[in-house]
Design goal:
This protein is α/β, with parallel strands linked by helices. The protein is about 40% helix and about 15% strand.
């Protein structure tokens, strides 16, 4: 007769690691709250979410969805962190990333941070890592303290138009090359100099375009006019239009984006300033509306679809290679699109 060994009492079985209930006890919340945090629910208060994440870190807890990754080798999900999705560049880049990820069989989990601080970015990255992602895309999270950002260890990351370039793999529009092309275009039309409506000073693309505009004028021995400060909106371009219309020395204007250029066109039309006869106007981005403005807008085209694909391709390369991080940078060309809003210089009446 053989005797089967009795299974040890259930209460005596040892767990291989901390459980969701352990996290709940340490954080002082319910297990349901912990589940909501790990699933990315928006119904959890920020301070509660922070306590749960801190408890996970202290215990070394990983959500049970990690088991699926162990079986398949991937979660088939990438995280995206963006700031101010209402902006053209951010929204179109996110759209391109989503489409490129879908083509690769991946879904996207998105967080739009309300402030580009290192604390907000760190929290967003940690939160996404708890939701079982394979890698992370950061889009224009323009903090001023990049060195202080803490990302989850061994998480594949790629950035776009961010101050983290040089520290992490990056894909970016050739902002300098695009700006040089539009400035040279206006100077070659005979304009003695080019005025500039700049984007907000806290935006890296705006700062790069402004610096490239200034450097190219100086390189050609031209006067560098005072910058007209904008904020990306058509309203700020419209407001600048009153000043430009009243100054007969202004014959060419480079706007840091198409929306400000659209506002400028309206303001000049209302004041009977002809475009391009009196003032040539150029933008940056080539939004779909640009060719339907009057006159159709000369601008610099950003290839957001290409940027999105390359961001995803770069991230997938890291995921495939085990999350190795390097600091290379890919520049996507920005092409000058010449339309009817720019023309040969002639002195204003």
């Amino acid at each position: 007769m053989t005797h089967e060994a009795e299974a040890p009492p259930r209460a005596e079985r040892r767990r291989s690691g901390p459980s969701m209930n352990d996290v709940a006890r340490l954080a002082g919340v319910s297990g349901q709250t912990v589940s909501r945090v790990t699933n990315g629910s928006q119904s959890v208060l920020p301070e509660t979410r922070r306590r749960v994440i801190d408890a996970m870190d202290a215990l070394g807890y990983s959500p049970n969805s990690a088991a699926r990754a162990l079986r398949s080798g991937t979660f088939d999900t990438i995280g995206v962190i963006a700031h101010k999705l209402a902006r053209t560049g951010e929204s179109r880049t996110v759209e391109a990333v989503v489409e490129a990820a879908r083509d690769r069989g991946h879904t996207v989990t998105l967080i739009d941070v309300d402030s580009p601080s290192t604390a907000r970015l760190t929290e967003a990255a940690t939160r996404l890592s708890r939701q079982a992602i394979d890698g992370l895309v950061i889009i224009r999270a323009e903090v001023r303290e990049a060195a202080r950002l803490t990302l989850p260890r061994d998480l594949p990351v790629v950035v776009s138009d961010s101050v983290f370039m040089g520290r992490l793999p990056a894909v970016s529009t050739d902002q300098e090359g695009g700006t040089r092309a539009v400035v040279e275009h206006l100077l070659e039309l005979g304009h003695p100099t080019v005025h500039h409506i700049a984007g907000p000073s806290d935006s890296l693309p705006a700062r790069v375009r402004r610096l490239a505009w200034e450097q190219n004028l100086r390189a050609r021995g031209r006067t560098v006019p005072e910058v007209i400060q904008g904020d990306w909106t058509s309203e700020s371009g419209y407001a600048a239009g009153a000043r430009i219309a009243a100054d007969p020395s202004v014959t060419a204007v480079f706007c840091a984006n198409d929306e400000m250029a659209a506002g400028l066109l309206v303001a000049l039309h209302e004041r009977s300033v002809d475009v391009p006869g009196d003032v040539s106007v150029a933008g940056f981005d080539d939004v779909p509306l640009a060719r339907f403005l009057w006159p159709p807008l000369t601008t610099v085209r950003q290839s957001f679809d290409v940027i999105g694909r390359r961001l995803v391709d770069t991230l997938m390369d890291q995921i495939r290679d085990g999350g190795t991080v390097s600091s290379y940078r890919q520049l996507v060309p920005a092409d000058l699109i010449v339309r009817a809003s720019t023309g040969a210089h002639r002195p204003r009446r």
